[in-house]
């Protein structure tokens, strides 16, 4: 039996705070087999295709929005969500690249080869070029397409850039995290470069402008120069609220009473981002877009608790497959929604936006077979049942195998040492090492890390490799039912086996020193020739093996410091 060390919080206190407000439903074995995502839904009854604004925030925790009971002020997000549809059964991926790739392609990461980690700045890797992207489909439907913000889907050759993947314009960063003012990014000691781009050029002249403001201003400029009579798609991928923790002083001052410095800065960044969303909404109204617009808001993964984020009362954090890593903040705001001002518990995943938005745009999905997403607009707008009944969170064969996992523990059909997670109906299964598993109330963040004693900690999970939860009845993953329901475990393992048979090989090539910004004028950017690209794409594993043999002592030392920095700062995943 699991032993929990609970300090300062009890089930009674959780009830008093209203955290156990999910409906408790009778468990069932598994849901019905999912419907075909390509199954046609009736077209939306709009007079013309709507303008689509997709807002993605970075590392914003589940608890870090006002309507989830946060101590952080987000009046704009609260109002937009209250007037639209809140998605409270909405799932994303636990880290940056996977969420972005699944949004852009409508496919699970096992079907794009990006099932392991993120795309590193020096890797010859990017979103597979054979994938037809969401903005490309919207372009086909007559949309003007624009991206503002963080790309993080690879850039080693020009064909990987946003402007080559369906966006008419782009202003933003290509790597995973940059300074909010200087736009510098270091991928290890001494490997630093500038990363702000306008189209395919380096935007040196924009240095010094706070990125959250810069990106909101660019959206307003795009709207001002475009005609509301023509459909437009704007993908706003804020850098906020990823580390480094930087914010204008006037926003930090609002949270001067917060004892924890990281939480204080983080809160300021969230509120600043909220005001940027307010300015974007105001621009939609000012320039005549709002009445025929759809605004989608989504986080990209769970909050990083080391850096001020909070996923309370969910378990885990960014980078894990616990609910704190994969359950996202999401809502849709639009005058076109038929049933507004409500909360939806329809099961929705980030892959669903691809077919949903293409359908709203009256685009053609018949030539993109194999999508993992579903058109969920009828569920959002009309309150109909979601066509989705299961989610493959991921299967990562390269992640460190769990010490105590085995094929025997997986009924001879699945090696439970492999990191994987799936939800089917009300049930969620995790195998391997799901990642850091504590519950961290936001109150304990004061004087971090001295308050670690205040955490609710699971003390016997280290020898496990299989967990089963009824997420509907137990959204906080406190009661592992794997021993009581081996029948459900076996059924969900069979679903993992099914998905694994459809997976393509992992794309995770070794880093290449030629990517160093010093060879590109001091900026991060494309660095591979066509011949290089063909060689690397045709033989990733041999390259990886060769590089391992050639590693020098200084390379190993740099790798050590990079991993140490990752563990300390938790901003490299």
UniProtKB/TrEMBL annotation:
Q: Which Gene3D superfamilies match?
A: 3.30.1120.10, Alkaline Phosphatase, subunit A
Q: Does the keyword ATP-binding apply?
A: no
For activity, the cofactor(s) needed are: Ca(2+)
- GO molecular function terms noted in the UniProt entry: metal ion binding; sulfuric ester hydrolase activity
Q: Which domain of life is it from?
A: Eukaryota
Read off the InterPro entries from this record.
Alkaline_phosphatase_core_sf (IPR017850), ARSB (IPR047115), Sulfatase_CS (IPR024607), Sulfatase_N (IPR000917)
Q: Quick check: keyword Magnesium in the entry?
A: no
Which CDD domains does the UniProt record give? 4-S
Which family does the similarity line name? Answer: Belongs to the sulfatase family.
Q: What is this protein called?
A: ARSI Arylsulfatase
Q: Which organism is it from?
A: Ardeotis kori
The organism that produces this protein has a lineage beginning with: Eukaryota, Metazoa, Chordata, Craniata, Vertebrata
| Gene from which the chain derives | Arsi
């Amino acid at each position: 039996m699991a032993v929990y060390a609970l300090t300062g919080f009890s089930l009674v206190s959780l009830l008093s705070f209203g955290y156990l407000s999910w409906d408790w439903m009778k468990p069932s074995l598994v849901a019905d087999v999912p419907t075909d995502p390509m199954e046609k839904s009736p077209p939306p009854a709009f007079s013309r295709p709507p303008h689509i604004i997709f807002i993605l925030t970075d590392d914003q925790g589940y608890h870090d929005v006002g309507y989830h009971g946060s101590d952080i002020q987000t009046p704009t997000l609260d109002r937009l969500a209250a007037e639209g549809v809140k998605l409270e059964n909405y799932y994303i991926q636990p880290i940056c690249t996977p969420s972005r790739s699944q949004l852009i392609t409508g496919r699970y990461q096992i079907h794009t080869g990006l099932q392991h980690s993120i795309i590193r700045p020096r890797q010859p890797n990017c979103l597979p070029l054979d994938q037809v992207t969401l903005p490309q489909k919207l372009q086909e439907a007559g949309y003007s397409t624009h991206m503002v913000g963080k790309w993080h889907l690879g850039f080693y050759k020009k064909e990987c850039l946003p402007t080559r993947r369906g966006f008419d314009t782009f202003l933003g960063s290509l790597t995973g995290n940059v300074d909010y003012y200087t736009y510098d990014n270091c991928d290890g000691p001494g490997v630093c470069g500038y990363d702000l781009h306008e189209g395919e050029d380096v935007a040196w002249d924009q240095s010094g402008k706070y990125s959250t403001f810069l990106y909101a201003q660019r959206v307003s400029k795009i709207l001002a120069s475009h005609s509301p009579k023509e459909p437009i798609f704007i993908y706003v991928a804020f850098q906020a609220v990823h580390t480094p923790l930087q914010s204008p002083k006037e926003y930090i001052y609002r949270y001067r009473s917060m004892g924890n410095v990281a939480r204080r800065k983080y809160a300021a960044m969230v509120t600043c981002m909220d005001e940027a969303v307010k300015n974007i909404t105001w621009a939609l109204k000012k320039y005549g877009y709002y009445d025929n617009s759809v605004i989608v808001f989504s986080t990209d993964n769970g909050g990083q608790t080391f850096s001020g984020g909070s996923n309370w009362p969910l378990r885990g954090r960014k980078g894990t497959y616990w609910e704190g890593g994969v359950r996202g903040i999401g809502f849709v705001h639009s005058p076109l929604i038929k049933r507004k001002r409500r909360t939806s518990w329809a099961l929705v995943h980030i892959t669903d936006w691809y077919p949903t938005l293409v359908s709203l745009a009256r685009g053609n999905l018949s030539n993109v077979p194999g999508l993992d997403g579903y058109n969920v607009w009828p569920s959002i707008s009309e309150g109909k049942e979601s066509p989705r009944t299961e989610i493959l969170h991921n299967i990562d064969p390269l992640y460190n195998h769990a010490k105590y996992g085995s094929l025997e523990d997986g009924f001879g059909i699945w090696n439970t040492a492999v990191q994987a997670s799936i939800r089917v109906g009300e049930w969620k299964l995790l195998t391997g090492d799901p990642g850091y598993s504590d519950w961290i109330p936001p109150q304990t963040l004061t004087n971090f890390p001295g308050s670690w004693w205040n955490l609710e900690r699971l003390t016997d999970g280290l020898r496990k490799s299989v967990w089963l939860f009824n997420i509907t009845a137990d959204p906080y993953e406190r009661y592992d039912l794997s021993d009581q329901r081996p029948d459900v475990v076996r059924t969900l393992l069979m679903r993992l086996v099914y998905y694994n048979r459809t997976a393509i090989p992992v794309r995770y090539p070794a880093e290449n020193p030629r990517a160093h910004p010093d060879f590109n004028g001091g900026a991060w950017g494309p660095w591979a020739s066509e011949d290089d690209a063909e060689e690397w794409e045709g033989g990733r594993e041999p390259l990886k093996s060769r590089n391992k043999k050639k590693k020098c002592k200084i390379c190993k030392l740099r790798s050590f410091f990079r991993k140490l920095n990752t563990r300390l700062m938790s901003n490299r995943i």
